[in-house]
Prior knowledge:
homodimer, 75% helix
Amino acid sequence: xxxxxxxxxxxxxxxxxxxxxxxxxxxxxxxxxxxxxxxxxxxxxxxxxxxxxxxxxxxxxxxxxxxxxxxxxxxxxxxxxxxxxxxxxxxxxxxxxxxxxxxxxxxxxxxxxxxxxxxxxxxxxxxxxxxxxxxxxxxxxxxxxxxxxxxxxxxxxxxxxxxxxxxxxxxxxxxxxxxxxxxxxxxxxxxx
Amino acid sequence: xxxxxxxxxxxxxxxxxxxxxxxxxxxxxxxxxxxxxxxxxxxxxxxxxxxxxxxxxxxxxxxxxxxxxxxxxxxxxxxxxxxxxxxxxxxxxxxxxxxxxxxxxxxxxxxxxxxxxxxxxxxxxxxxxxxxxxxxxxxxxxxxxxxxxxxxxxxxxxxxxxxxxxxxxxxxxxxxxxxxxxxxxxxxxxxx
DNA sequence: TCCTTATACGGAGGCTGCCTCCGTTTAGCA
DNA sequence: TGCTAAACGGAGGCAGCCTCCGTATAAGGA
Lengths: 192, 192
């Protein structure tokens, strides 16, 4: 074996366990929030606690990895939806996915907001920009198809969506309410 | 001794220890946030952990007691400031005290926002209303003195203050910035 | 195919905090 | 001064945090 390979690929078991841990953490942190038990995450992933700590030295590392994973999923989804023939429907689907994420991963979002470090701020900035770009592409597509008002911006959509989510979150049944209001908003953006 | 006294006053040691615990919790929770150690609170108060749990059966009971204590302090301050000859200065002092509270008790506020129960929502509603009333009285006083625009509302002030606090909080030095912006805002409300 | 070893795994163990339970102490009434 | 309801304190059992180190294994080279 090559004894000195500074940038070697991670071993296959390491890669697999990392994925397992992130999947488990999605569920456990999403429900339990900032105080959720990391031993519980390791148990659900079927790995030892030592493995968890090797991959994610601190609680924040794990939170960040999960968050990044989720947001990159949304970015991927936006890219896929650019194939869609109906640009407005594409936007609607994408926003539904985003609201669903806020709904199921509430604990995670609270956890992220509790521990704000320089590091997490940088990540947040980077991901926000990429997300906004992905949505802007969807908007442009719909505008080009002639089904959306040409003065629409990605920020209009994102700000409205997050404002609705956060203003409504505590009540039960808020998700349906927000989706209804979003539909109205999107209809308002249609070329008549 | 009267064995059957359903609504007896708490014993003096109980009252004293309750105060000691709230004082200690102010510091410990203000710094440590939601995850702060309750044993640490008891140690700082100089009482046993059992005593803490008798007075505050859950972490939330303690959080709520501290929060109520702080907000009632602000309400008392507003009442005292009604004696002040200069209504605008009184408002300014009061808002400075409020910003200082946000600055030193950040951990507490985060803790309160993480665990939202029916109970805490009711308390929050009640205290918000009383706080708004106290500020409204200060505003009316200043208006009556002819030093403040007569269309000013307590909500204008409170919303502006909290929006500034929460939008700015993470940066270092935010407190001075917020105080400066608040001063400008209050000057804007002066009758010229 | 097998050997070698860098890489990764798992969980025991020490520590801290949570919360309960109960024996001890004390405030305050008569 | 005596009595007792009320309050105190901390031991103890349990759970989670994180580290450390002996064991297992993936994968490059012979």
